[in-house]
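Hey, I'm writing a tutorial for new members on how sequence and structure tokens pair up, and I'd like a real worked example in the thread rather than a made-up one. If someone can provide the structure for the chain below, I'll link this post from the tutorial.
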Amino acid sequence: MNDTIKATCVAASLALAFALIGCQPPATEDPGTSAESELVATNGLTMINGLTMTNGLSGNGLSGNGLSGNGLLAQALVVNPLATTGLTSSTYLMNSAAGRSTLAYLIRCALPANHSITKTDSTGASYTFAGGIGLTPEWETGTCNGDCQRWNSACLLAHVNTAGIHVPIWIVGQNTNLGWGQSATYPNQEGTFFGNIFTTNEAGHTDAYYCEGPGFDKTVVDGRLGSTQVGAPYRDTFAGGYCNYNGCLASDITTNGVPDGYKVCTMGDGAMTTWNQLVTVWRDNKSYNSSGTVVAGKTADSATVGYDFETSTNSWTSTNATLSSSADKSQTASKSLKVVYSGGAGTVSLASPATLSLAAGTRARIYVALDWNQSITSITTWVKKSDGTTTSNTDDISRHYRGSWNAFSITVPSSKTGTQVGINFATSGAFTAYVDAVSW
């Protein structure tokens, strides 16, 4: 299994109200040079243990003209080798900035590093598209069959960011040129992507699917993809919840006991289809500005961090566990609240100071990393209201990842003000957990 992990960045264009921040395209562009490929070359590939990328593919290249209707098959890419007749000056994707951006990502997904394709558009301008990951190297001189189409589709979908920004991501999958593995720098599982964007299904739609990972509060993937936009081709047909309890099969490879991703998911809006070519994305829980600098005090979904436990316990309390500020694990900064419980079966309760003023409808998020043992059975997130009553939400722990970060949330009810938030652990015995990035 190839553990190679690479890092890149490419331009995006659309803007969404849901804002994540990242890198920008080059300030200038020579007439015969591809802006998309220049970004590829500039950001290069970092060989580490896994695959770090930067997503940012504009949805315009896919949901606009690239994928609506007949998918990418209409561009004659599938039936022809990329190096010869697959890309011509008359190919639609060659003759628009959005199309060339899509091609830049597509060829980076398909071809290995040190391979590139140079083509001209209808005006004679030359563009070079660099390889990077090499999921389907055979496409350079041969045709792209079903597996080839599905691998490139999954990879391309994993890079879409219709917010017009670039977010560092760690991608893994059961492809020998991608491989499994995790990175402490990208501790939150965001989602898994799969489908076939080269064709349309029996319902007349493009198979562009995803399911969500437990590392973020809901809608993080939705916001990045722009899946709620009118006409967007991206769909998560699971009624609710994450990949791991909707029938997706986890990878056989694990890191510290945590599956690295998924190898099989079944989803479809026409006939249900079992997909075996999947790309799973892991991310950090940080926000970035237009220069690629981390925005302090913000999570990936632009929520404001109220408690980060960087210098202390931030006056959080527990009646039966020991709390401390710890550098063992972290989310938005470098430390978290370490929770150590050494007792028997019962409930361990953590509470913030009762000095908050959260407006009705505010969604409070609490990120929790669990240890490997099986003692915790459920987690309840709660908010105390100004009238002294409490609203809570309980999650069965089987729906989350042990040994990894998980997102939990609670919403302040209408016509109420939240004065305190907290989290309860139902346990059969001793455990260690970490809490961080309490935000809203």
